[in-house]
Amino acid sequence: MMILTENLIRNIRSSYFGKAPDFLALAKPRVMSLAIFTAIVGMMIAPSSIDATKAIFATIAIAVGAGSAGALNMWYDAGTDSMMSRTANRPIPSGRLSSREALLFGLICATISIILLAISTNLIAALLLAITILFYAVIYTMWLKFRTPHNIVIGGAAGALPPLIGCAAVTGSVTIEGCILFMIIFLWTPPHFWALALYKFRDYENANIPMMPIVAGRRSTQRQIFVYSLALGPVGLMPWMVGSASLFYGVFAAIIGFIFIWHSWKVLVFNPNDPTFRNEKKLFVYSIKYLFLIFAALLVDTVIWSLV
Asked: Do 114 and 131 touch, CB atoms closer than 8 A?
């Protein structure tokens, strides 16, 4: 009996612990790290404070919640992922994990994250986290993604919610500071993903995903990228405008916002039919840097002025 038990434990360990890297990949660690980072900034910029223990548990809950949304997305999109070079090696299409394992992992993580956030902070933050998971996994993944070229615009709301959740974890309410951070990510999302979709359009075409470049064409997508970039620039200044950040942040945000607009202008005007998609690739890379820099600047600014 003891030998059978030991063999069972050994099999479980070899089966599931050996798959730990694949379960982590299901959680989309890069997306999760972005959610964690922006949520922490949301906590820091909130007009009140939170003790360290609650902040740690809130951060863990938001991370697990983001991971659950990623896992549920990969579970539903497994068939589509197998058709795209960018996603073909993900755990499910590659056969390293089953669809059932991914679904259970996603549902368990979602449940744990919502309960943990409710217990450690408040019900408003937990409700916002539940809405984020539901919006990304159901509204975006199962409904919008395959039905409209505006999937990224509407679905981007889910990716923009973590800083709002961070603020709510501190204040127990939806604040202007959290809403501004939400709007920064919301307006950043279309230029970021449409730049990627422009030079990866064959992947989306093969998977029958109606991304903007496929439905509206390259020129229309370039114009819309520029419009969203123009809207993003002043919104990036709003933390300074409402008094949540210093003039130093405002100047920095203006500079990096202008560079974002400049890259978008290059996509629109400078050799817009370039078959190498050089300007689109540069915009995509810079957009990642922009989001990190603007939230890092807010974090540093908040820390410095709290010490002063």
From this structure: no
Q: Could you tell me which residues come within 8 angstroms of residue 62 by beta carbon, excluding any fewer than 6 positions away? A: 35, 36, 39, 113, 117, 129, 162, 165, 166, 169
The encoded tokens of residue 225 equal: 């990228």
Q: Per the domain annotation, does 15 fall within a domain?
A: no
Global pTM? 0.88
Task: Report if residue 1 sits inside a domain.
Answer: no
Q: What is the b/e burial string over 258-296, where b = at least 16 CB atoms within 10 angstroms of the residue's CB? A: eebbebbbbbbeeeeeeeebebbeebbebbeebbebbbe
Q: Does 123 lie in the same domain as 45?
A: yes
Q: Is residue 256 within 8 Å of residue 248, measured between CB atoms?
A: no
Whole-angstrom distance, CA of residue 237 vs CA of residue 241? 6
Q: Tell me which residue range forms the domain holding 207.
A: 175-308
Read off the amino acid at residue 45.
Answer: I
Low-confidence ranges of the chain (pLDDT < 50): 1-14
pLDDT in tens, 133-142: 999 988 888 8
Cα dihedral 111, 115, 118, 123 in deg (nearest 10)? 50
Residues 263 and 133 in one domain: no
- Dist CA 262 CA 226 (whole Å): 9
Does residue 106 contact residue 71 with C-beta atoms inside 8 Å?
A: yes
Which residue shows structure tokens 């933390």? 239
